[in-house]
Amino acid sequence: MSEKLQKVLARAGVGSRREMEGYIQADRVSVNGAVAKLGDRLDDPSALVRVDGHAVQLNAPSESVCRVLAYNKPEGELCTRSDPEGRRTVFDRLPKLKDARWVAVGRLDANTSGLMLFTTDGELANRLMHPSRQVQREYMVRVFGDVNEDMVKNLVHGVELDDGVARFEDVVYAGGEGMNHTFYVVITEGRNREVRRLWETQGVTVSRLKRVRYGDIYLEKDLPRGGWREMDLKEVNYLREMVEMKPESQTVITPEDQKRKKSRQKIRRAVRRYEERIDSNDKPKKTRQARRGNGPAAGPKGGSPKKGNQRSGAPRGKGKPRTRK
Q1: What is the pLDDT of residues 270-292, one digit of tens each?
Q2: 8 Å CB contact between 131 and 227
Q3: Residue ranges of the chain whose pLDDT lies below 70
Q4: Which listed residue (109, 146, 163, 222) is catalytic?
Q5: How crowded is residue 314: how many other Cβ atoms within 10 Å of its Cβ?
């Protein structure tokens, strides 16, 4: 049975289906030496498919094991595979793969931190991102400015943005002092800077934004910034069931891995070593004299998703009512 070329490439982990459509339109994909066109289907599973001149190992639907990572993105990292200016990207810290690649489930802008999901299954990533699936994303947001009940009602009922009407599914006030207020908000789309733009329509500025939930996957408090954890089979199948995909029967996580999944000290040490290595690359190297101690040395400066309504970040405050649609 033939399948659309972008779907086959997504399953092989080259990227999401939407990304592969862009690759095909840009003439970056070939099949048996012929440049592919959008809408082409792959009838021969043994065909030689190349992306940017590199051969792609195609997987049958039952051959590849779906893997998913939860990553705690720090502010300042870019959601791109490489940056011409050499800035850090979210892919820099992820574990290396031999016959697959990590596909980001959506994006967060450079100034936004928090939960990101990565998977080796491009079809899963595509379905989770698609607006028709209505997958909830929850953010902790701190805004600067006066916020009243009418403004919150506007955001829940819907306001006009440049790319159409948008709204929050839920808004919960979590306290604040002076002109700074913290809210938890829920959206079901992944438009560019949607949360920030919604608040800007009410004349207030977002000073901090952090994603704390994707579907029912919560950002764990003990997962450090820049740290990741691999999801177990139950969590992977929760995501697949949510977007109407067949459950997985295999996982790369061994029983020993499950016993050690709470060993956050190892993750923290790895994150710290990465930070020190990056910082040291930006510093001048020590001279031989400095290394011998004869002069000044230049160097760097010294589990499973939570249940219920638990949240990561500031606790809910009192004084402003919870508003729902």
Answers
A1: 566 666 565 555 544 443 333 33
A2: no
A3: 1, 59-63, 254-325
A4: 109
A5: 14
Reading the block at residue 294, the tokens are 């004869």
Q: Nearest 5°: CA angle at 144, between 188 and 227?
A: 55
Single out the residue of 130, 73, 112, 80 nearest to residue 194, CA to CA: 112
CA 154 from chain centre, in angstroms, equals 28
- Chain position carrying tokens 């705690």: 72
pLDDT score recorded for residue 238: 95
Q: Which residue has the tokens 């980001």?
A: 104
Place of tokens 């994150």: 271
CA gap 296, 289 in Å, rounded: 9
Residue type, 324: R
* Residues in contact with 169: Cβ distance below 8 Å, sequence separation at least 6, in sequence order: 136, 156, 186, 187, 188, 325
pTM given for the model: 0.68
Alpha-carbon separation of residue 244 from 155, 195, 239 (angstroms): 30, 27, 9
Active site residue 99: no
**pLDDT tens, position by position, 94-139:** 998 877 789 999 999 999 999 999 999 888 998 999 888 999 999 9
Measured from the Cβ of residue 68, the count of other Cβ atoms closer than 10 Å reads 25
Q: Which residues of 3-40 are buried (b: 16+ CB within 10 A; e: fewer)?
A: ebbbbbbbbbbbbbbebbbebbeeeebbbeeeebeeeb
**Residue 246 main-chain phi, psi, to 5 deg:** -65, 145
Specify the DSSP class assigned to residue 320: S
C-alpha span between 117 and 213 (Å, rounded) = 10
Phi-psi region of 235 (alpha: psi -120 to 50; beta: other; left: phi over 0): alpha
Do 127 and 245 meet the contact criterion of CB atoms below 8 Å apart?
Answer: yes
DSSP, res 264: H
User: What tokens does 175 get?
Assistant: 């306290």
